[in-house]
């Protein structure tokens, strides 16, 4: 089996996306990303050892972990946006009440 | 001996043929549990596509275990199945958060729209009130200007007929006695009646609510009692004539003063002529409350 270079590129690309989305600032996403990075490192070692088949399986896992990290980072983003929307709505209600537009 | 051989052969077949169910790897157990959780939770309703993908991956893992047993590939496939189920749940939660956010934003927009509509309505009402007030103000201005114009016109009309002046008593219209009456008489001359017609018209026009006093005055020639009677009769004549011409009777009274209120020297003919007079004193009406 040849070295799984394409799977390696896929996994690393997913890890990069997770980092760019702020996965390291979200505990759950940070854990998933760390797992992905560790398994990618193990895969690279397996390739170096000539165990391409093991490397292929590790890279599949790494990519799945990185994709989960991306989703978890986005989930946090949606939560933050939701909280901001609630705050904005509260602020607007207060403003309207002060201005006497809505009672 | 034969029985023992059969027993050994039976167990040998069991082991060699794999008939005993092998224990699934922990990864596969976890994968089944993760899928069970995802498929029974909100993910099934919110993100059925990802749940289906998780099921497909679990099936791959199950097939790998069924075909190859507890191999590294089975574990890898099971691991992927766990992640796919988790991914479906995370996506579902994200959708819920976004949906809640949309709800808040929509409610906020609805509030804002309602507030704008309310403010707009209030503004419209204020504008209408302002327009109405402006109209009323214009009407009032016009009415006041008309009244002032009428008063000015009435004064101008009076000024053509007689001397008009303002003093502490109000507007004083002085008519020469020689114009109104023949000597020693208190009946109005026909020419005087024409003049008084115009005076009556002006008085009615100027201020329909004002009170007035017709004062009769004589010069100092003759007895005081005679002059007093003459001045009273002359004042009465003028009053009565004005009432006939439409001036309300309760607005106008008459009083004779004889020669007690001379305005000129009684020793000269001109002075005496000036003293023989009738004055109509118009007191301004009380301002409206």
How does this structure look, described?
The complex is a heterodimer of chains A (103) and B (289). By secondary structure, chain A is mainly α. Chain A has helices at residues 5-20, 27-48, 52-99. In chain A, α1 packs antiparallel against α2 and α2 packs antiparallel against α3. The longest helix of chain A is centred in the C-terminal third of the chain and has 48 residues, at 52-99. Chain A is rod-shaped. The model of chain A has no long low-confidence stretch (mean pLDDT 90). With 289 residues, chain B is α+β, with helices and mostly antiparallel strands. Chain B has helices spanning 2-17, 26-40, 43-46, 48-68, 72-161, 177-180, 190-206, 224-244, 269-275; strands at residues 163-167, 170-176, 211-217, 252-256, 277-283. A 5-stranded mixed sheet of chain B has the order 1-2-5-3-4. In chain B, α8 links the parallel β3 and β4 (252-256). Mean pLDDT of chain B is 85; it is low at 1-19. Classes of the chains: A mainly alpha (103), B alpha+beta (289).
Uncertain runs of chain B: 1-19
Structural class of chain A: mainly alpha
Number of DSSP helices of chain A?
A: 3
Helix content of chain B: 55-70%
Q: Based on CA inertia axes, which overall geometry of chain A fits?
A: rod-shaped
In whole angstroms, the N-to-C terminal distance of chain A is 73 Å
Write the layout of secondary structure elements.
The complex is a heterodimer of chains A (103) and B (289).
Chain A: H1 5-20, H2 27-48, H3 52-99
Chain B: H1 2-17, H2 26-40, H3 43-46, H4 48-68, H5 72-161, E1 163-167, E2 170-176, H6 177-180, H7 190-206, E3 211-217, H8 224-244, E4 252-256, H9 269-275, E5 277-283
Parallel strand pairs in B: 3-4
Antiparallel strand pairs in B: 1-2, 2-5, 3-5
Helix pairs in contact in B: 2-4, 2-5, 4-5, 5-7, 7-8
């Amino acid at each position: 089996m040849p070295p799984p270079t394409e799977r390696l590129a896929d996994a690393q690309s997913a890890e990069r996306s997770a980092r760019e989305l702020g996965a390291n600032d979200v505990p759950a996403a940070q854990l998933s990303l760390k797992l992905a990075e560790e398994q990618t490192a193990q895969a690279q070692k397996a390739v170096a050892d000539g165990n391409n088949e093991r490397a292929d399986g590790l890279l599949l896992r790494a990519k799945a972990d990185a994709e989960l990290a991306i989703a978890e980072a986005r989930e946090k983003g949606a939560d933050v946006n939701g909280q901001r929307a609630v705050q904005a709505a509260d602020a607007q209600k207060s403003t309207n009440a002060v201005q006497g537009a809505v009672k | 001996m034969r029985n023992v051989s059969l027993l050994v052969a039976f167990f040998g077949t069991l082991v060699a043929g794999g008939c005993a169910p092998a224990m699934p790897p922990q990864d596969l157990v976890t994968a089944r549990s993760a899928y069970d959780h995802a498929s029974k939770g909100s993910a099934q309703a919110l993100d059925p596509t990802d749940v289906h993908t998780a099921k497909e991956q679990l099936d791959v893992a199950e097939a790998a275990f069924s075909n190859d047993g507890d191999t590294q590939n089975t574990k890898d496939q099971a691991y992927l199945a766990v992640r796919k189920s988790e991914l479906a749940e995370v996506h579902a939660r994200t959708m819920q958060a976004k949906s809640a956010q949309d709800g808040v934003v929509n409610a906020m927009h609805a509030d804002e729209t309602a507030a704008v509509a309310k403010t707009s309505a209030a503004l419209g009402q204020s504008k209408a009130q302002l327009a109405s007030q402006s109209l009323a103000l214009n009407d009032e201005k016009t009415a006041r200007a008309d009244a002032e114009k009428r008063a000015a016109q009435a004064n101008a009309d009076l000024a053509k007929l007689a001397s008009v002046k303002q003093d502490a008593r109000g507007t004083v219209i002085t008519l020469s006695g020689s114009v109104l009456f023949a000597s020693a008489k208190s009946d109005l001359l026909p020419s005087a009646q024409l003049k008084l017609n115009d005076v009556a018209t002006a008085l009615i026009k100027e201020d329909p609510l004002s009170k007035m006093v017709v004062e009769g005055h004589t010069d100092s020639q003759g007895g005081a009692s005679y002059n007093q009677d003459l001045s009273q009769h002359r004042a009465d004549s003028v009053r009565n004539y004005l009432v006939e011409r439409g001036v309300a009777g309760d607005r106008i009274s008459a009083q004779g003063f004889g020669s007690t209120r001379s305005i000129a020297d009684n020793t000269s003919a001109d002075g005496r002529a000036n003293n023989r007079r009738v004055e109509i004193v118009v007191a301004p009406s009380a301002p409206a409350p």
